[in-house]
Design goal:
This protein starts with a helix and ends in a 33-residue tail after the last helix. With 250 residues, it is of the alpha+beta class. The protein contains nine helices and eight strands.
Amino acid sequence: MPSTSLIRSALGWLAIAGGAGVFALVYLYNPTTTMSAAAISAPSANKNKTPPANLETVTLGAGCFWCTQAVLERVDGVWEVTCGYMGGTVPNPTYEQVCTELTDHAEVVQVKFDPKVLPFADLLEWFWRLHDPTTLNRQGADVGTQYRSAIFYTSEAQKLVAEKSKVLAQKNFKDPIVTEILPATTFYKAEGYHQEYFNNNGSAGYCRVVIAPKLDKLHLTQTPTSAPGIGTGPTGTAAPGAVSGTAEKN
């Protein structure tokens, strides 16, 4: 089977070339969105700042980790977002192995955030908005168990907040939320070319037709500041508006 990265690239280039079916798919999931120059050209944030001592860590699965990283690293209070794999049975899996669905891993991002700036409940509001938590093992055109929706918590307090947040979010979705809430296991950092994929490859097809419209729709299109922990969300620590009943899909 072709690798998911090739499928993603093909999707992007078909859309740019004018593939009507792909354009229909993209705009079905992202109606009335436009790509901004800032969304396409945003550079990586400076990671050389000293983080506060009270950072918390949580690992989230929300489909394509390129998309999830691009969104969350632009949120105020988020200090670091790393693409990787969690929830599987094979040590040190490669991307190609994960794509076979035989390792049971999910594509995830490990998020380090400052709870004084971004309470965990507010971070989860972004999580519910940036993907569709009601589609089992699928986000848009990305299909497979590695794209499952999941929250891997690191404390009992995070578990309780996640469970409450899921109940509240369900009121805004017609279909049942299928997001898993599980204790964090070993996190395996993804290959280097996956890290900061959107920031480093903004002109790539998948970035232009999938990630950039998502950032536009979430009003996260400005260039990240040079200081981590200071994102580009329009409302500071909270997600822009209440959780929408119209899912944000990859």
